[in-house]
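Q: Entry one of two.
A:
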Amino acid sequence: MVLYRNGRDMSQAQMVRGAFLRAFEARRPASCGYPTSVEIAEGDLTIQGFEKLTLEMDASGEVRVRGSGTQQIRATIPSVETLLRVQEISEPLIAAALKAVTAAYGPPEQLTAANTV
């Protein structure tokens, strides 16, 4: 168990212990920042906040950085035509835009969203 003051008054010091302390020390304070909260029960997890991240521990005692696991995101991407219509663009301009999209990229209904970096 270690008590961190972070240069603050002792009344604002936070304790890090057990699995959280081992994870904190393994990541080094520079990557975590200092603790900003005590351990908090959140459903099936126990969490502890730090200046730069939040650590979470599951029932097995495994500690990981919150949000570092695989996440699946589902989204509905509106069609090009829908995006144009919500802008209250006139029908002739929508038709011209759809024609330009088709010429440049192929039929709008076959376009897919992609994440490019």
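Q: Entry two of two.
A:
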Amino acid sequence: MREVNHEETNAEKLVNEVCSGQNGRCVPIWGATIYHLDDLPFTIGEKIPFNQQTWNKQMAGTKVRDLLPTPKVGSLPAPQ
């Protein structure tokens, strides 16, 4: 999962270092937040809130997108 705050990005970096040292690979996936990446009031790489209180203040007023409709059974391709 893709992290955004200082503590989490440091942890992600350490996980990546361990994976690399074991000939492994860590593939980040965005999705552990109710906010869409494009709706954040900052960009990844900018100064991101260091703690939950600062995060909450910066996210105040940010709208959560509506959920996508659940696909109908059989409408998606089978996994390979």
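A: Comment on entry two: Residues 41 and 61 are 10 Å apart (CA to CA). DSSP finds two helices and no strands in the chain.
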